[in-house]
What we know:
13 helices, 16% strand, HTH gntR-type domain-containing protein
Amino acid sequence: xxxxxxxxxxVYNWVLENINSGxxxxxxxxxxxxxxxxxxxxxxxxxxxAVDILEQxxxxxxxxxxGTYVGGNGKAERQERYMNIAxxxxxxxxYIFPPVVRGxxxxxxxxxxxxxIAFTGNRVSREQDILNNLIDKDIIDGLIVEPAKSALPNPxxxxxxxxxxRGIPILFFNSRYPELELPCxxxxxxxxxxxxxxxxxxxGHRNIGGVFKSDDGQGHLRYKGFLSGMLEAGxxxxxxxxxxxxxxxxxxxDQWADYLFRRLESCTGVVCYNDEVAYVLSGLCEKRGIxxxxxxxxxxxxxSDLATLAGVKLTSFPHPMEALGRKAAENMISMIENPYxxxxxxxDSDIIERDSVKVLKQPHKEEM
Length: 368
């Protein structure tokens, strides 16, 4: 044992020196036992002893089936592999989810994983039930989840913390809970909101309104981009022209028709939170004899089938949908194999021009 004690220090000191110098960074994978054995001319048993000591000191973390990584302190190791990933989404019948889940399932199935799917209906009470069930059964290797009403305080954060403490990787898609330091794969909503209003400005519009969703993070980020684009163009944002609606309001937008048109009365253009809002708005305009785009130009987000089904085909920014699902699944697999993997990813989006925006010959002057 004395000989092994002397020999193992060569490996131990080499790893320690490289960590201290920054040559090996947190989350970086160590050479395999075979590689270290060859490098130092030692047996795998001696190398394994060195790694054992490093792990006991929480300087490294072994991940079964993956390897050993720098910086084990604070990262739980999930020993079991059930080959089962839970996916939680808000709506089963939304135009976003079917292609997203198709992308998720295609990637996961190729890697031998099954997919367990549940829907919250964008209700935190339903989210609580689903998370409770996942914790009780404890048979998942990872969780891909679309948060419910992500812009509001959430009573379920402690369930996510418990899953995290059990070593189960969690990846949000479309939005995230800002209180949790967990990765998210989504459209770059802030950038898209900015691009949408910039497109209207480029076409001569200055009296521009917006319709945004108040209870999810995407709505707030898209408004943030809208605000940034207006201010950079030197246009004052008029609060009266910005409409905020929540999940329940979106279930029956017709009831808000009078309110919407009263708020947008002075606008020549409007940025809509998504195609669903833009589609309903275009129908309400038709009923009231308001011509799109001659009297009101509309820019939307998602580029779903609704964008081409409206009476006037809508200019819209595409949501990545299936590509987002594939990326979420790929990142989840990487997070399972390497607990230090950064699962965050933002998709850019470029406008699809159709018929819903009018080019104004003379930009409207800003009202003082």
